[in-house]
Amino acid sequence: MSVPPLRIVYFGTPAFAVPTLRSLIGSRHSVVGVVSQPDRPKGRGHQIAATPTKELALQHDIPVLQPTKLRDPAFLQQIADLRADLGVVAAYGRILPDSLLQIPRLGMINVHASLLPKYRGAAPIHRAVINGETDTGVTIMRVVQELDAGPMLATVTTAIANDATSVDVERDLAEAGARLLVEVVDRMSLGPVTETPQDDAQATFAPKLAKTESAIDWRLPGARIHNLVRGLQPWPMASTVIEETRCLLHRTAVAPDPCDSGPGAVLAADGDAIVVAAGDDTALKILELQPEGKRAMTAREFLSGRRIAPATVLRSA
After folding, report:
1. Taking CA 28 as the corner, what is the angle to CA 105 and CA 87, rounded to the nearest 5 degrees?
2. pLDDT per residue over 226-273, tens digit each?
3. 285 within 8 A of 254, measured Cβ to Cβ
4. Which of 36, 88, 132, 247 is a good FRET partner for 187, with 20 to 30 A between their CA atoms?
5. Rounded distance, CA 14 to CA 91, Å?
6. Pick from 90, 101, 197: nearest CA to 149
7. Domains of the chain from N-terminus onward
8. What angle do CA 161, 198, 106 make, to 5 degrees?
9. What is the pLDDT of residues 45-60, one digit of tens each?
């Protein structure tokens, strides 16, 4: 059966939103406009840089809108003029008002990076990794006014490896979500699609990350610290102070702690790891770290020409 093409207006901003936009551009459907947040300064030079979705849209001669106010009548008219059948949202980064949701003929659907109703909110991938989840996924849901509470059209589940960072998981979910979204759009073009209400009683929330979450509390269990190291990437990064040097931790592993040492005490600092006692009967192996103001490096590189005495206690940054 041939798939009747739909006219789609796409709302998305960061790298996570790029695979879905790319898949829609390559599908039978027509992306008639892309809405991105405004360009912002980036990097050390603070040069204004186009958002990832804007870059891709311009490569394909797709009109790009970057409104500062979503209720602006002029912007709403621009969306109406696109005559879109459907709106697709993926990590746009702002709540869409009702006046906007009602414009596309088939409404708007969202690519959300969790298995709803778990992890509604701004940081579902990071919170899943921080909490030690072994799997997560993507939900395609209808956009409603209440945050991530709309009925679900489809889901896909993916595993989270024990050493995967939130960056790794986001990359996998972006690709999985892109495939699933196009399948849903194809089905919507043929007629009504079953929409399953969420069980609000099972909802959990994934608030935005804060810089204050960076400092490691070595009294926590080793597995919890390891999950924080994985989940706080690429920002704000888990951090600790090693002999007056603040360091961001990029890669760690959990190991048994055969010593009766206090939390944060260095058990060994040679070879490929700095081994630090955690708050339970485990230790954390620091495998890759980044001294403040310098590049990321392996523990072996960090220890080259530097001696950390056993029983040195690491403190919160």
Report:
1. 30
2. 999 999 999 999 999 999 999 999 999 999 888 788 999 999 999 999
3. yes
4. 36
5. 7
6. 197
7. 7-202 (3.40.50.170), 211-316 (3.10.25.10)
8. 105
9. 778 899 999 999 999 9
Question: Is 80 exceeded by the pLDDT of residue 191?
Answer: yes
Question: Cα(108)–Cα(217) distance, rounded to whole angstroms?
Answer: 42
Give the tokens for residue 72: 């602006």
Q: Within its chain, how far is the Cα of 174 from the centroid?
A: 9
Which distant-in-sequence residues (6+ apart) come within 8 Å of 298 by Cβ? 272, 287, 288
User: What's the rounded Cα separation, in Å, for the pair 168 and 269?
Assistant: 28
Please state the three-class secondary structure of 253-295 as a single string. Answer: EEEECCCCCCCCEEEEEECCEEEEECCCCEEEEEEEEEECCCC
Report the chain's mean pLDDT, rounded to a whole number: 95
- Show the tokens assigned to 270: 């040679």
For position 1, what pLDDT does the model report? 60
Residue 199 three-state SS: coil
97 preceded by cis ω (within 30°)? Answer: no
